[in-house]
Amino acid sequence: MQLKEGLLIYGCYGYTGKLICDHAVKSGMKPVLAGRDKEKTEALANELKLEYRVFDVSDENVVAENLKDFKVVLHCAGPFMFTAQIMAKACIKAKTHYLDITGEILVFEQMFKLSDAATEAGVLLMPGVGFDVVPTDCLALYLKDKLQGADSLELGLYQKGGKLSHGTAITIAENLGESGAVRRNGKLEAVANGTLTRLIRVDQKERNAVAIPWGDVSTAYRTTKIPNITVYNILPQKLIEGMKMSNYFGFFFRSRMFKNYVIKKIKKRPAGPSDEERKTAKSVVWGEVKNPLGASKRAILELPEGYTLTAWTAIKIAQNILQKSPQPGTRTPAAVFGADFILQFEGVTRTDV
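Structure (tokenized):
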């Protein structure tokens, strides 16, 4: 098989995977597509006039054999708690650079534990090359650079329109009943759902926000070395109250029976936002750093809809690595490409506030 770009996209036929494949082709690339379902993988490959491979992510040696011809793998098949570690270890074995679009904090932590092995193999591991966590990672580094001695970072997410894809919703379902997470004094700490809240001013209005276990609790710590990190999601107060109530029923939400019920209902819904919904939806990331002297800096990123941005950032990072391999090991997007990396994409603005 003649490889043209050296990129394999695994999980190509999922909602986000297909957006990424479409954008790769529009960008002039010819990736090889891959997935575990032959019919779906072949259908998309034929539609996009691309080559394809079929394998599942269960046997590390089988995966490595399928990856050995490629310079970069872009892994899009979640929930990543079930697939990322095997894929990353196979990449190390095959000496293939690894990218994924996870937002799962424990997956990021797993990837950092593989950093030494990746460095020895000369392989880059970069989880979170989509909306999780490229814009937040870039904003975190930008703010850290603006305030000397910053020891506290808070980030806030605000979505205007759009909806969840099946993959994102199923990942949330798999984590039902689990606690939230923050970083305190460099260590991960669990927090009860819905209990850590604050007001964040976005769109000229103070809005209710609640702490969530977003990936930056893991990644921004590596990017900035700031020891205290909290990420908030701006949500309606009724939903925050529901999160608090969930603490009393965690044993039920964690049950396989309940999760399977929720996942079955998710799969009956549309696969993700429509093209029109993605065009009209917007995302906002707010950030603030403080230092022990009481000084602070704030900034806001205004962004396109999250799945659209994921396709753009993931493919741009893959292109950059195909052109020039960065330092090996587990690394974050902003640490490799800088705080201004996010500003190159259409519809992205950054404002100090």
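Residues 306-323 form the longest helix (18 residues). The chain has two domains: 7-130+308-333, 134-306.
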